[in-house]
Specification:
Blueprint: E1 3-10, E2 34-35, H1 37-44, H2 50-57, E3 60-61, E4 72-74, H3 92-97, H4 104-108, E5 111-114, E6 120-123, H5 128-136, E7 143-150, H6 167-178, H7 185-199, H8 207-217, H9 231-245, H10 253-262, H11 266-279, H12 283-297, H13 309-333, H14 337-352, H15 356-367, H16 372-379
Antiparallel strand pairs: 1-7, 2-4, 3-4, 5-6
Helix pairs in contact: 5-14, 6-7, 6-12, 7-13, 9-13, 9-15, 9-16, 10-13, 11-13, 13-14, 13-15, 13-16
Length: 381
Amino acid sequence: MPFTHAFLVPDIYPSFRCKGGSCRSTCCKGWGISVRMEEYFRLLGMDCPPEIRRRLDCAFYAPKDPSPERFRLINPRFDGDCPLRAEDGLCALQLACGEDALPSICRLYPRAPRGEFAYECSCSNSCEAVVEQLLDREAPLTFRSVELTLESAPPAGKRLRHPRGYYSAIRALCGEILQKRALPLPERIARVGLALRALEPLMDAEAGRMGAEISRLGLCADELPAFAPDAAAGLSAIRGVLDALAQTSESLSPYREAAEARLSSPAEFFTARAAFSGRFPAWERHFEHLLVHHLFYECFPFSDRHESFADEFSALCALYALLRFLLIGYTASVPTREGFVDAAAAAFRLIEHSRFDHNAAVLLRRQGTADDASLGNLLAL
């Protein structure tokens, strides 16, 4: 049943448009795309041209543990692409039978409506068109309420550990700090960590104390801890995280391999970093937009209900360092805007479509690189 409600969205959301056949890294390729049980049987019984029927009959296979929501998976072609994708890059099923014939995941992506904590909707940075939108803008990202009609209500899921109404205020605070452009971006990220550290003990406090602390932290009044960041140590730490996580991401592999080849030593990294800053003088603004948009998409710092704010912040530092490593390294070989966009979108395929926050925080602890000084080293990249 259609569901209509007011959703909080980033200001770029209403203008998002799929690139269709002109997309370099389509959402049809390199993904484990699943369809629901009722969609699978609808596709099997659908009246369609013979060529589409032949493709559909071979397009799915059963996962190890099927469920009504994940009943069948798309069976990719030899090149990893969807068997229903046409030679011009468009969807042959949609061209033959209309958009309504598509499974819901194909109609919805990269949009992600949510209803767990508040009605919100945004697009994923794993889509290259979204990354391009963010790189094209100059002004800080803003958010507004728009009325959206969905095919059904977004899942409610579980509630927050502390359902005190702080969700929106804390999230807005993190975005506000990240967009204080008078400060270098790494310092803004560090101040987000300070804010979360101050707020977590107050999660069960009365509203007045929490509200006063949020207002104070919004002024960025806290002094940063005194330490001397070591970018070489940060480089070693993020390599360890990548070694553990990137092995499961097929789409990230070529970008990681290219970065590793160009950044085999700290000296090579520092040289490539200087070149990156010269090639992309607005890189801090680009990263700001990517981070603010991502944190909204992920419900940060409530991305994982079971994680502490400290772990959420550790994962944010790892995310920043991973982006810096991949984009600096990959654009050393592909020194173009397209190279920046493609590497960023590939990174967010891992970051936004896996338990990156949890896994990165665990890996940093295991490496002994989750303390303040070590997180500062990650931000020094």
